[in-house]
Amino acid sequence: MDINTKISCIGTGAMGGAIIGALAKKYKNISVTDKNTAFGKSFAEKNNCTFIEKNADVIKDSKYIFIAVKPQFLDEVFAEIASKITENQVVISMAAGVKIEKLNTFAPKARFIRIMPNVCASIQESMISVCCNSNIKAEELNEAKELLSECGIVEEVPEKLMDCVTAVSGSGPAFVFMFIEAIADAAVRCGMPRQQAYTYAAQTVKGSAELVLQTKKHPAELKDMVCSPAGTTIEGVSVLEENGFRNAVIKAICAANQKSIDLGK
What's the helix, strand, coil split of the chain in %, to 5? Predict the structure, then answer.
């Protein structure tokens, strides 16, 4: 896709900022806006984007329009832009839980792609799911996926999986960060300096994740490889199981999934 293709984004917070920050490394014609003018201008300056104050103006002539606002603000945003969206433009929504059917109620003439990225887009390591309706042309979907590939791994999924995706890859980084923090706290308790503890914890999680992705082995098989008979690892695994570690993770993902469903109502 032409690096000068016009792209715009309404909202430069955590998720929108992560996506646009990654895209701006390659694409040269990006305009952004934000309700917080000072924040939006600062973001635009740091990422070589153009800041435009009004939502209705920022989308003008854009081929792809990213909507990166919280679900409760969608009606306010679309009240300003719905009549300005043309049939040649594609709107890409990352509003958690909000189905394409509901998005169409805000802007009946607009054509939508729905995505769920995560904050790891800021280092181009996001897991991004994409879905759309039949009014999106194949070449448009492919171009959108090409765009998003600058942010990480992109996968098309049926819309019925988007709430699960939101819980797993959208919310998941927060759970992983908590796990890293907990490992680091334990390391400090055992005598390791704080900054060194964060490095050891984060690299351990990073390496373990890469091992799953590269070997394609079942996580249980990899876990068993580390658990020597009567060793330190199986002792720790026993304590995690005793304290409901896996059940807590399952409940956290299911709670996030339900919240995504609720946000879409």
Answer: 55, 15, 30
Q: How many CB atoms lie within 10 A of CB 67?
A: 29
Start-to-end CA span in the chain (Å)? 36
Q: Spell out a b/e string for 233-259, using b for 16 or more CB atoms within 10 Å of the CB, else e.
A: eeeebeeeeeeeeeeeeeebbeebbeb
User: Confidence class of residue 157 from pLDDT cuts 50, 70 and 90?
Assistant: very high
**Could you tell me if 16 and 26 are in contact, meaning their C-beta atoms sit under 8 angstroms apart?**
no
Q: How far apart are CA 136 and CA 174, in angstroms?
A: 32
Q: Cα(35)–Cα(13) distance, rounded to whole angstroms?
A: 10
- List the structure tokens of 173: 């980084």
Q: How many CA atoms lie within 13 A of 69 on its CB side?
A: 21
Residue 207's CB: how many other CB atoms inside 10 A? 9
Q: Give the HSE-up count for residue 176: Cα atoms under 13 Å, Cβ half-sphere.
A: 17
CA distance 233 to 235: 5
Closest C-alpha among 104, 97, 94, 159 to residue 126: 94
**pTM for this structure?**
0.91
Which amino acid type is present at position 228?
S
For residue 265, pLDDT beyond 90? no
Residue found by looking up tokens 């448009």 in the block: 140
